[in-house]
Write a structure and sequence with these properties.
Helix content is about 30%, strand content about 25%. The radius of gyration is 20 Å and the shape is globular. Helix 1 crosses helix 9. The chain has about 350 residues and is α+β, with helices and mostly antiparallel strands. The strands form 3 sheets. Strands 9, 10, 11, 12, 13, 14, 15, 16 and 17 form a 9-stranded antiparallel sheet that branches. Bound molecules: adenosine-5'-diphosphate and magnesium ion. The site of magnesium ion has 2 residues, from loops.
Length: about 350
């Protein structure tokens, strides 16, 4: 089949790699001529995401369309809804942090308490303030632990802001699922995620999570994708506190915390996404070995020489030339049949990088 991908980042690139394994043809759309997807796609259209002519051109070239990020023009996705198995609703809901949390609450999924900011004086710390739209990788967020923080913060209150209860979580996880046209759901093993300044840094799938945590996360995620009648891969981020799972946000696409599945399971989040997009049944992933995924950010490139020496590391670089700090340049997945050995052998590296 011919698959159109909107967005030429690393997620689009890895979708295209999965598509090629099944001999599909990929056409990408991205405004940057040197984007990661360009290195893998069969064809690229270089235009902005809301360029109607380019969008029409792409739709006419392919059998099915997918998006790899949330900044897609929703009006265009709605106009061509029949081309997008993922549909527009998941995008509309997840694009706005208030709508997103309200949606979770409507499904009885626990969330931090939240409200829209109307008066800065009414804030009771500890809270976290977030711009309602456009934020990612911790951007547009302000942690307010005390009233002093509030005086010092550079928050721009001309923007729409959501005030969230600050959760002193024990750890964070994500639940990555792929739902096919028949409604069958294939879950990846659940990673435990560590963030560095709001950006995902590590996804650890070396030890299984408590069964009760996994059950809650899967059941909340299933009710979310079923209600949205979503088709494709989707990830939900959760906080875990005292073995209770609390919803943070979801992304209607493959997710950075699911990259471990390329080497760590029998069917990756990208493989299943492509199966779902092309009308095939999803396959149930099983974990092959304990696995740990580490993001390589712009400031981490000097460590690559050490990473390359670790024999059980699988390096994926995204062909990005401009190595800005905090920019995701690649990732490495460590896969080892002995989780203790895996952890001990990479501890020095992780400590040096943290
Ligand atoms: P982004 O869209 O940037 O990923 P998130 O809402 O996921 O935004 O926030 C990024 C990170 O900030 C989270 O993974 C978590 O570590 C921290 N964080 C976000 N919201 C809260 C909260 N309510 N309480 C505590 N930590 C939070
Ligand atoms: Mg997040």
């Amino acid at each position: 089949m011919k698959i159109g991908i909107i967005g030429g980042g690393q997620l689009g690139m890895m979708m295209a790699e999965a598509a090629h394994k099944n001999n599909h043809y990929v056409v990408g759309l991205d405004p940057h001529s040197d984007c990661p997807l360009r290195h893998v796609a069969d064809e690229m259209i270089c235009a902005s995401y809301d360029d109607k002519t380019a969008f029409d051109e792409l739709v006419n070239k392919v059998d099915v369309m997918t998006y790899e990020f949330e900044n897609v023009d929703i009006d265009l996705v709605e106009e061509y809804a029949f081309m997008f198995p993922q549909k527009a609703q998941a995008l509309t809901v997840s694009k706005h942090r208030f709508t997103e949390k309200e949606f979770a609450q409507s499904l009885n999924i626990p969330t931090p308490q939240f409200h829209m900011l109307t008066d800065i004086k009414s804030i009771v710390p500890p809270v976290i303030l977030k711009t309602t739209t456009g934020g990612y990788d911790g951007k547009g967020q302000y942690i307010v632990q005390t009233h002093d923080d509030l005086n010092q913060t550079s928050i721009d209150i001309s923007q729409e802001i959501i005030v969230e209860e600050y959760i002193d979580f024990d750890y964070e996880i994500s639940c990555i699922v792929t739902r096919d046209l028949s409604g069958e759901c294939a879950f990846q093993p659940l990673p435990r995620n560590t963030h560095k300044e709001g950006i995902l840094w590590l996804s650890d799938v070396t030890e299984p999570l408590p069964i009760t945590v996994v059950k809650q996360a899967k059941s909340y995620t299933k009710s979310l994708v079923d209600t949205l009648d979503y088709v494709g891969t989707l990830a939900v981020e959760f906080f875990v506190k005292d073995n209770m799972v609390i919803f943070n946000e979801f992304a209607p696409r493959p997710h950075n915390s699911g990259h471990f599945s390329i080497e760590g399971t029998t069917v990756s989040q990208f493989d299943n996404h492509i199966l779902a997009m092309t009308g095939e049944k999803v396959k149930m992933p099983t974990q092959t070995s304990p696995t740990l995924m580490l993001n390589i950010l712009g400031e981490d490139l000097d460590y690559l020489k050490y990473i390359k020496d670790i024999p059980f590391g699988h390096i994926h670089m995204y062909h990005k030339t401009d190595a800005r700090p905090k920019r995701k340049m690649g990732h490495v997945t460590f896969v080892h049949n002995n989780s203790h050995k895996l952890i001990t052998e990479i501890t020095t590296l992780i400590e040096a990088m943290s």
